[in-house]
């Protein structure tokens, strides 16, 4: 079962790592490996959400999602999108960006380095919004209850996430402007670029979130109509499976999945810029990670174990928040790539371990015949 589900991912990993070591040596191999782990860790919640929707689709639409959908996810978002980001930030064409990376890596690296403040501001704001919207939402399970409980109460204030993100952006842009002024104003014009890029990241998040909400609402409407049509078909003695509205519901569910997948893939793509500016390392590492995310989605659907580890989603979002902070800090300061990559892995590992300990405590409680309420669950999470 495991080999059948992850077979393609294992094969792509072996080929990708071998290619990285052959072309770029141990440094390239290490960065590609870190990016793969980063993509998997940041997109675990993506796999969980995708699996929750995918299990409602029939076998035909599941195959569509895992074939056509993977072309969009892997080749579109993980391979093409980073090129577009670099091309826009460096003000060169996508083909020119690829040619430059092949013909003159040093010049390409300089262009990417010059564009880094804009990339970091855009990505930092996008990731920060994902993190803020998560921690300001009331949730059944709380990993760090002492922190998440008061933040969930604050989240009842409308537009709080947007206000905090804009304040952080203003502080970042002003800090960059002050540094430029102290060093003779050589980069003074880039403070405006940082501000505009950050606003663009915020707008992108709001648009993607709006599209996801739109498709989710359409999905709920179509499911309600489908249910009514099935009930009517049963009353008339017809086969409910022949009702045409089911096709529409499946189509909207597929569109909703693609928007969700695209929105979740932004964090991995943007977060990769905090680790490396090498476009081919980035594409290979994220591509390998994306394969595992798709395989994990199928595995979760087939095993039906979506709720076994309740804190993994928390760990993934804290990793997103850490990357957002790192990207915004790297507008002014340099942070080692290895440290950046390992922070996310450490947070995911900690949330997994907390989930395992919680499951053990719940099992012991059930064996002793005790009941576990929400308060005691929060106590377990805070101790874990």
From TrEMBL:
<keyword id="KW-0175">Coiled coil</keyword>
<feature type="transmembrane region" description="Helical">
    <location>
        <begin position="190"/>
        <end position="208"/>
    </location>
</feature>
<dbReference type="InterPro" id="IPR007427">
    <property type="entry name" value="DUF475"/>
</dbReference>
<keyword id="KW-1133">Transmembrane helix</keyword>
<feature type="region of interest" description="Disordered">
    <location>
        <begin position="362"/>
        <end position="384"/>
    </location>
</feature>
<feature type="transmembrane region" description="Helical">
    <location>
        <begin position="241"/>
        <end position="257"/>
    </location>
</feature>
<feature type="transmembrane region" description="Helical">
    <location>
        <begin position="269"/>
        <end position="294"/>
    </location>
</feature>
<protein>
    <submittedName>
        <fullName>DUF475 domain-containing protein</fullName>
    </submittedName>
</protein>
<feature type="transmembrane region" description="Helical">
    <location>
        <begin position="115"/>
        <end position="136"/>
    </location>
</feature>
<feature type="transmembrane region" description="Helical">
    <location>
        <begin position="65"/>
        <end position="90"/>
    </location>
</feature>
<keyword id="KW-0812">Transmembrane</keyword>
<feature type="transmembrane region" description="Helical">
    <location>
        <begin position="315"/>
        <end position="333"/>
    </location>
</feature>
<feature type="transmembrane region" description="Helical">
    <location>
        <begin position="7"/>
        <end position="26"/>
    </location>
</feature>
<feature type="transmembrane region" description="Helical">
    <location>
        <begin position="157"/>
        <end position="178"/>
    </location>
</feature>
<feature type="coiled-coil region">
    <location>
        <begin position="212"/>
        <end position="239"/>
    </location>
</feature>
<dbReference type="Pfam" id="PF04332">
    <property type="entry name" value="DUF475"/>
</dbReference>
<feature type="transmembrane region" description="Helical">
    <location>
        <begin position="339"/>
        <end position="356"/>
    </location>
</feature>
<keyword id="KW-0472">Membrane</keyword>
<feature type="transmembrane region" description="Helical">
    <location>
        <begin position="32"/>
        <end position="53"/>
    </location>
</feature>
<feature type="compositionally biased region" description="Acidic residues">
    <location>
        <begin position="374"/>
        <end position="384"/>
    </location>
</feature>
